[in-house]
C-alpha cells in the first residue's frame, strides 16, 4: 500500500492506491531495484487513475464550497450593498431615488426565482401600480410574498425606496413585516411575510366571502387597523403618514389579524411638524381627505379620514366609490350613511350577511366614530389615540356634522377610482395606484 496526502482549502484527504500482488512480487525478485516491463505498465496505469481521481475530487470540492458560500450569502446582512446596487443598475435612479443604508437581509435573485417557481403565473397573488406580487417558498420552508417592481414603473422606484427605508424600521403586529429585499440589475424586489388570507377587500366586497366575517371579527379588524395607525402616528420612533390606507392595503394573516401594508406613498414627519404640502397628489379616490385631494395638504388627520371610510365599508360591505342607491342617487356611501344617521335609521345599511348577530349599540357607535373621522375640517376629526379610546369604552361621543364628499362627483375621463392632481387643481390624471376589478 502507498498513500498520498492532499490539503485542499483546509480539507485534508488521503488517497490509498491498491497495487496488484504480482507487481509487488516483481519488486521483490529484482535485487537490483529494476522493474519489469509489465510492472512499469501497471504502475503507470495506477498513477493515471490516481491523477484523474484527484482532479475529479478537487472539482467536486470547489463546486461544493462555491454553492455553500452562495447559500450563506443569501442570508447575510449587506448594509453597504444596497446603495451600490442602485447606483450601478439604472440611469433612472437619480440621487434622490437612491436608498440610504439600512439593516435588511439581501436575497440572491436565483434564490427568489427558485422560491417563486421562476415567477410563474400560478404563484401570482395580485398586481398593482408597483408591479406584481408572488407567493414563494424559501429553501428553509418559510412562505413569503415577493413584491416585484415593474421595470416600467417610474413611480414604483420611489415606492421601493420608501418601503425599504420605512418598514425596515417598523415592528408592530398590525403592520406587515418585511423579511428582505433583492436588487439585481433591473430587478428590484421586496420580500414580505406571507399572509394566507389575502386582503380585506377580498372578503368585504365579495357577496359570498364577506359572510365569513361576523361582526366580532370585523370589530377586531377595525380595532387592529386603529392600533396600527396609532403606532405609525405616535408610538414608533418615526412619525409616519401612510397616505394610502384602503381595504386592499389591509392584509389578513392566518388568524384574520389585520396588517397595514404598502408604504410606497408614506411620508415621515420630523420634530413638531404637523402637516405638509405636496404639488403632486397621488392616492386612491374615495379614501382621500378633502384637504389632500384639493390642496395637497396631508397630516395624521388625512389617515384618520381614510380610516373612517374604511370603517363604513367594513360595516356595510360596500365600496365608497361606485356606490348607488335609488333613494339617494346623487350620494356616495358616505352621503347615504349620513342621511340614514340623521334619520336614526343607520342600521338599514348594515351588511345583510351579518343578519342579527351583531351588537346594535356597538355598530351604531362605530357608525358615529366613522362619521367623526370623515368630517370636512381636519381639526374636527379625532386623533387615532382618541379613536381607540372611543372604541374601547361606552363614553358619550361628540355629534358629527355633515361629512366631506357626501355627493358623487362627475368625471370626464380617466379612471374614476384613482386620482392624481398637481397643486390645488382638482382634475383627474394618471396615478400610480391601479384599482383592478374584483
UniProtKB/TrEMBL annotation:
Primary location recorded for the protein, binned into one broad class: membrane
Record field: transmembrane: 41-62
InterPro entries reported for this sequence: Kinase-like_dom_sf, Prot_kinase_dom, Protein_kinase_ATP_BS, Ser-Thr/Tyr_kinase_cat_dom, Ser/Thr_kinase_AS
GO cellular component: a single term: plasma membrane
Topology with respect to the bilayer: Single-pass type I membrane protein
Pfam family of the protein (one): PK_Tyr_Ser-Thr
Record domain Protein kinase: where: 119-397
Protein family per UniProt: Belongs to the protein kinase superfamily.
Protein name per the record: Protein kinase domain-containing protein
Species this chain originates from: Rubus argutus (Southern blackberry)
